[in-house]
Structure to design on (87 residues):
C-alpha cells in the first residue's frame, strides 16, 4: 500500500513542479523581481523532492525557502530578490 501512495505523491509533485516551471518565468516577468535565475529556484525544489523521495520521506505540503537554503539547494544570495516580500 505504501508504493502506490509514494507513486501518487511523486506524480503529483512532478506535475506541480512542471506547472511551476512553466508559470514562474511569466510571473517574474510581470512582477519584475530582480531574480537573476528563476529556474534555479525551480531546480532547487525539484532536487529537494527527488532527495526526499529517494530517502522514502513523506513530502510536506509546503517547504520554506529557509529549508532549501539549510539543505544546500539554494544560497542566501539566490533569495535576495525576495527581501521584504511576504511569500
Amino acid at each position: 500500500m505504501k508504493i502506490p501512495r509514494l507513486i501518487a505523491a511523486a506524480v503529483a509533485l512532478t506535475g506541480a513542479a512542471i506547472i511551476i516551471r512553466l508559470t514562474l518565468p511569466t510571473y517574474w516577468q510581470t512582477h519584475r523581481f530582480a531574480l537573476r535565475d528563476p529556474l534555479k529556484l525551480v531546480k532547487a525544489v525539484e532536487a529537494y523532492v527527488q532527495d526526499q523521495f529517494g530517502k522514502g520521506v513523506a513530502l510536506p505540503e509546503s517547504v520554506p525557502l529557509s529549508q532549501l537554503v539549510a539543505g544546500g539547494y539554494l544560497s542566501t544570495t539566490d533569495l535576495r530578490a525576495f527581501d521584504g516580500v511576504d511569500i
